[in-house]
Specification:
single chain, 6-stranded antiparallel β-sheet, 4 helices, 21 strands, globular
């Protein structure tokens, strides 16, 4: 009941202030003999490029999402800010028009000149099922285009959850990001206490999708249970040009989970085992972008453990009261590009 009160106050504050709580929030959790395929592509070329997928032969597609990460508004006055703009732009996957973007993942910078990012998400499960039906290969490559928004979208991320016999029993969580660059925390809840994270076969990996990032100086910090996983999340590893409209990176296919890497060697896929403990029933994920100019719009979790939910850490009601008072609405029921 207390959590519902917090969330209600959060919604009221959002309405009052015009800003959004944007912690990592669940886009779904799947458990069983499940696996995950994540890849991204960004380009200012007309065809953008190809996004990859790796799915075992005979696997069942459980969920597939396509994220399209626009450049920030008002930094670019032509950046997309509505689902209608994404749906009418001419974005395609494997030659199929994507006109069912139905979820907006917002993000706010503490720099007023950058403003907000508006990342759109489409459910492409049916399409991916049709593209993989009867396949005798596990490797796929599908073309992506961005139509009229090509110069104002940094790129796309395709996340696919599947199940297949013979895989380890595990959980996959897909998370909407769109976080406030000033830093936010979410909690991963587990249905059963963790077994020994150092035991053979135990896996716990976190992948991030980040847009509008490049050049060494723009980087984000990730902490798990208070321990620093990396200070160097960011760059445009999956972008084909060093240019706004092509600045995207995501931890996934072709990346090795590693922590505390240099900026150029950090590929946004992390091994969480050193930060977990036998008996844990939850753990926290904190992200922050000190330069206030990167967009963490997506995250994925794969664990040989029982993830039940991922929830944002919402401030206590008294914190909201102080914030609302500052906004002059205490009576409400309740919340770059680079440096020029």
């Amino acid at each position: 009941m207390k959590k519902l009160v917090h969330l209600g106050l959060a919604a009221a504050l959002c309405a009052a202030s015009g800003t959004a709580l944007a912690d990592l929030t669940s886009a779904g959790v799947w458990s069983g003999t499940v696996g995950l395929s994540v890849d991204g592509i960004g380009s200012n070329s007309a065809s953008v490029g190809n996004v990859q997928a790796n799915i075992p032969v005979g696997a069942t597609i459980l969920q597939a999402y396509l994220y399209s990460a626009g450049t920030p508004y008002p930094w670019y006055s032509s950046s997309p800010t509505t689902l209608a703009q994404y749906n009418s732009a001419g974005i395609t996957l494997a030659g199929n028009a994507i006109t069912n973007f139905d979820t907006m993942v917002g993000a706010v910078s503490t720099r007023s000149d950058i403003g907000k990012w508006y990342t759109a998400r489409a459910d492409v499960t049916t399409l991916v099922k049709s593209l993989t039906a009867g396949a005798l290969t596990s490797s796929f490559s599908w073309g992506v285009t961005e139509g009229s928004l090509n110069s104002f979208i940094d790129g796309e991320v395709l996340a696919i959850v599947y199940s297949a016999p013979g895989l380890a029993t595990a959980s996959v969580a897909l998370l909407n990001g769109g976080q406030n660059t000033g830093g936010e925390t979410s909690t991963v809840h587990l249905g059963t206490p963790l077994t020994d994270p150092s035991a053979p076969g135990f896996a716990a990996e976190l992948g991030l999708g980040i847009s509008f990032s490049c050049c060494g100086s723009q980087r984000s910090t990730v902490q798990v249970n208070g321990g620093t996983v990396t200070d160097n999340a960011g760059n445009f590893d999956d972008g084909l040009q060093l240019s706004d409209g092509s600045l995207i990176t995501v931890g996934g296919l072709g990346d090795t989970a590693a922590n505390n890497q240099s900026y150029d060697n950090d590929h946004e896929l992390y091994d969480l085992r050193p930060f977990l403990h036998t008996g844990d029933t939850s753990f926290s994920i904190f992200t922050q972008n000190p330069t206030n100019d990167d967009n963490i719009f997506f995250a994925s979790l794969y664990m040989t453990a029982d993830i039940t939910s991922v929830t944002p850490n919402v401030p206590e009601p008294e914190t909201y009261a102080l914030m609302l008072a500052g906004l002059g609405v205490l009576g409400a029921v309740a919340r770059r590009r680079k440096t020029r």
